[in-house]
Structures are given as C-alpha cells and as structure tokens.
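S.,

Sequence below, as promised.
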Amino acid sequence: MISVIVEEHPEFSDNNIVVPADGRIALPPWLSVFVIGKTTALVQAEVRRRLMMTRLRDPRVTVSVRSMRPAAQRFINIVGDVVRQGIVQLDEGWRLTEALSAIGGVTGRLDEARATLTRGRTSIPINLHEAVSRPASKANLRLRANDVISVMRIEPITVIGAVAKPNDYGWRSASTLVDAISAAGGPRQAVEASRGYIVRKGQKIDVNIKEAFAFRDSTANVALRPGDFLTVEAVPPLNVSVAGDYAKIPGYYQVEEGSGVLQAVLRAGGLTARPEEVSATVWRGGAVLPIDLQRLLVGNDPAANIPLQNGDVVNLAEPKVVRVRVVGRVAKPEQLRLPPDATLMDALVQAGGLAIPRELARISVLRRVENGGAENGGAENGEQVVLQIDVPALFDMRDMSQNPRLRDGDLVTVSEAKIRAVIVSGEVVRPGPYPINEGDGVPELLARSGTTLLGALTRVVVRRGNEKHEVDVYDALRRGGSKPNFPLQDGDFVVVPRNEARVLVMNAVVRPDYYPLPERGTLTAIEALTLAGGPRQGAKIKEIAVLRKQPDGSVERIPVPLNEIGKGQISAAGFVLRNGDIIFVPEMGTPRAGLMQQATQAVGMLGLLRSLPF
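The prediction came back faster than expected:
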C-alpha cells in the first residue's frame, strides 16, 4: 500500500492506494501510473510529470510506502514480443525459462529475438536461445522480485528480385550477403550474371555478388544488419561479334557483363594461330582499340583484357604481312608470311632455296591485278597475270626488275624447264606445278590437284602468254559428263576462281561456316544443314530459320520446321536458298522474343565480315 499526496489538491491525493497485480495504480479522478520495479522517487517524479500535463503548474507531490505485501507475493514484469505480456507472480527459485513458460513463450524463433533483463538501474543482455537450449547454463538467469524482462524481435532481412524464393529471412540465418542469397534459394541466373544492392535506412549500397560467391575477397561478402533490404538483379548479357580468319568459329555471341576480350575469344573457340601471328583489335563504333594478345594470353596480364561493351566486334586478323605461296622445286614449299617490302629473292631464301640447279629452273609469279591497264597486259581488275622471271639475270643480279617486290596473294612457282608442266592455283587442294602428258586437259589436271567446294568450275581460267581462256569443266568433274576440247600446253597457268555465291550456316551446328551455292542446280536449307554437320545437341530445332535480307534493309525470317520436312509434310524444294542467305540455328535457352533481334544482328555481322580486309 502506498500514499500519494498532492499539496493543495486533495482531488489528486490518496492515502491508501493498494498496488494491483498489474502494477498500475489509479489516482482520482483519472491518472494511471505504472509503479512496479520503481523507487518512490521515480514514482513521485512520474506523478508530478503527469500532473503538469494538466492545468497544474508546479505541483508538489509526496509518495511514500504505507505497507508491503508479504514476501511470498513477489512479482516480475515481462513485456515485448511474448505471447502474454504483463505482471507475473514470481515463485521461489524461478529462472528465466520458468518465467517464459508462464507467459506462453516468445512470438517467433528464439534465435531471432533479443532480450534484456532490467534490475533496478542495471540492464543485462539475455541469450534466449542459449538459456532455453541449455537450462543449466549461466544464460538461464535466476530471477528476483521486480525484475523486468523485455523481449524484442530482431528485424528480418528482406530479399527480393531475381532469386528463387524472395521473402523475409531471419537475421541470424542471413547475416551476410552470401547467407541471405543462399537462404532465398540462390539467384535465378548464374552468379556471374547477378548484381545487387542493399537499402539500409534510406541509403543504397551496391554489392558485388560474383566476388562474394567466389570467396576471393572477404570484404565482398558484406555483413548485413537487421532491417536491411537486399535486391538481386539479373545482369543482361553483352552482344558481341568475333570476326577474322584467326577465330576458330567466328560469329555472334552473348557474354556476361564485365567480360573482356579473352572471354569473347574463348567463346569463339580460341585462335587458329599463335598469338604473335595475330593482329587483334576491338571495333567500337568509329574507334579501333588495339589488343596485345601476347600480354593477354602468354603473359596472363589482366590489364590487357579490355572490358567489352554491347555491340563490340573483336577482330582477329593477320598482321600487315605479305602472304606468298612458294611451290614446286624448292627445299621447303609452303605458304610464307613476309614483310610488306619482301622481294622474290627473299621468298626463295625463306623457302630454303632451289632444289634443282638454277640453269634448269623456270620461275614465274602468278599475281592478281589490282589496277588494270596497259602496264598489266590489258588485264582487268581482279584478273591474274603471269610474271616470267629471267632466272640467270635474277641470281646474277644483272637486272633488278627480275627481283620484283611481292604482293599479297602472289604464287611463286619453281619448275624444271625440261619438263612440260602447267601451274594450277586458286580454289584447289594442292596448288603448284604439274607435269602434263600429250592430250591432257583441264579436267585431268584438276582431278590431280583436287578441287574445293568453293571453286567455280564453270569459269576456270587458263592463261597462255597474253591470252586468257575460260573453260567450263563443271559437268566433266561434277556430273561425269564429256570433257571440253581444250588440251593444255607447256607453261599454261590454270586458275580456279572462287564461287562467290554462298550461304552462311551459323550458331548451334557442328561446323558453322560459309557454304557455296551450286553453279548448276539449287541448294535447299536441309542440304545446307547437312553440309554443316546438322544441329548440335541443345539446338532449338523448331526455331531454325532462313534469314534473308530484303532490298529495304529489313530481315525476313523464314521458318524451317525440320520435324515437318522429315515427315514429308513440307517439300524441301520450298526452302531453296539464295546468295547471302543465313541459316540461323538458335541455342537452347534463347528466349523466343529475342530470336528476331539476334537474326538482325547476324545479318549485320555477315555484311561486316564481307567488308573486312582479310
């Protein structure tokens, strides 16, 4: 029982106030004050403060204890995130766990709650999980009368965005960036293609999810705080192209954000030559960025791995050299790469020199004309001329004009003068000089040298001195027809030009490449797919299409349903290809909505590849 006296205000005074079980006393006419666990001075100050909130200006309050309850009736107060908060009678020997049982426990998980015991003016932190799981531990505190136990739920970590299970997660189970994302089932996409940020009290903090899961840098695995809001986003891939003769599989690729030149080269299957033999650049809009492949691939220098941007073209081309083939009677007949100012003698020296006495040698240079006119025998641009070399004048250095500076694409032939021979070049398997017998014609010669699929057999050129003859051997070689009546002569040059009518089969096929259209007849989409080895495992068979550029620059997409063709429901003749067509076989996982965008980019890349100076 306590007494509360307010001088000169008997209406607020009461000399016989019994403190109820809930610890809250009522003063007439309407004041209510909580007194359990407080000293008389604290109660007196609280009553004075509450009275000053009324019309009283400076009330003088006196609080005193009239009498105490028997010792057997002691109480504690439990407040916060518990099932039933309030005053609880304290039994002798009670510990924390008995008090929690009396009020029904806490709301939520024990390990996600924070508790404090207030005893007088002292606050003691409580490990609820330790106290409940190990009742005999020191964490299970012994209670005293007037103790106040406060239980507060720790704010959860909220994870949203591109994760498997966006939700709220307890702070103790999601205390770091990696723990929180793992608790949410992980990213819906690859870790490398994920980025995110934390919102903490209105502040945005960017995080590096890729580095955090790589566990290379402990600081990347950011420690989270209760109430943090974590957002995970999918990073859209970069669309880049890899072009050039020195890429194994040139084409259009998607790489992850942050990827560099190295990642694009690896996606294209790597290089077809040593790094020192390749000139690498990145084409970005109107800028050309040089790449040091030696530092990148041999020196493993990360600084040489220039980060890529959307739309970049990685060009893997040959350095500025003169490519010359030396064939015939030399020590090492082969394709040579020479400096731009190399001469015929330089090429002969690098090929190991003559394999026959010089007095028996006959040397000629087959060259494609770049500028037609009288100085080139009246040849037109793109045609080939033959430079006959005076061998004695060359080796005796009597006439420097017999040691011409070589050009890219020149074919140097060394043959024996006493043998009747012709020289074959162009789209053949084994270019070089061939001895001929009486009556031999172009079909017999090409049968020995071997033709490629890219050869234009209806337009084979035979150069004889200043004369040029065009011979059609297509039927003789491809269809077993009669051969043309055009016997070869000693010293003839036979050139098989390239068939420029081609289609491109790309992406998810075994051998993506250019394939020629037949000079006579047609090539269907299914035949072109067969030439490319057919679709790879994982290709989207139902999404195969022929991409055909229209005169207005748009791209027409013509579906090629292989499953219906195979059933005989659609005629393969309906898919006859034209020059410049692209057969596009998508990879599994490519969204249907993005196929047309990829198709347009593929057609644009085809035009780019044709314009490169290979």
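Residues 595-611 form the longest helix (17 residues).

Coffee later?
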